[in-house]
């Protein structure tokens, strides 16, 4: 999976990675926010969910200490990372900023 993850984040368009856990209540809130974000950004960006319990090495490699943690990658480079729940408008703004 690490290889696949590396391929995913090499994208020309921004990739928003949601590091989450199934037992995490704020992660469920973030997940519904991300559905709205996906509708608004469409093909400009990609949203990928990584379950930290299924892929602990990817979480560790990316310095994930708490969930939810969101990160934006483009061309393999980490552009932004923050823990906590984020609102639709902030995330759409970030993705549009990095998609140009």
TrEMBL record:
<comment type="similarity">
    <text>Belongs to the thioredoxin family.</text>
</comment>
<dbReference type="InterPro" id="IPR013766">
    <property type="entry name" value="Thioredoxin_domain"/>
</dbReference>
<dbReference type="InterPro" id="IPR036249">
    <property type="entry name" value="Thioredoxin-like_sf"/>
</dbReference>
<protein>
    <recommendedName>
        <fullName>Thioredoxin</fullName>
    </recommendedName>
</protein>
<feature type="domain" description="Thioredoxin">
    <location>
        <begin position="1"/>
        <end position="100"/>
    </location>
</feature>
<dbReference type="Pfam" id="PF00085">
    <property type="entry name" value="Thioredoxin"/>
</dbReference>
<keyword id="KW-0813">Transport</keyword>
<keyword id="KW-1015">Disulfide bond</keyword>
<keyword id="KW-0676">Redox-active center</keyword>
<dbReference type="InterPro" id="IPR005746">
    <property type="entry name" value="Thioredoxin"/>
</dbReference>
<keyword id="KW-0249">Electron transport</keyword>
């Amino acid at each position: 999976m690490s290889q696949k993850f590396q391929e995913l984040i090499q994208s020309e368009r921004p990739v928003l990675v949601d590091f989450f856990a199934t037992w995490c209540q704020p992660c469920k809130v973030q997940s519904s926010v991300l559905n709205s974000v996906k509708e608004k950004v469409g093909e400009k960006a990609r949203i990928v969910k990584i379950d930290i319990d299924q892929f602990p090495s990817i979480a560790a490699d990316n310095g994930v200490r708490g969930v939810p943690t969101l990160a934006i990658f483009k061309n393999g480079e980490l552009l932004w990372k923050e823990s906590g729940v984020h609102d639709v408008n902030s995330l759409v703004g970030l993705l549009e900023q990095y998609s140009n």
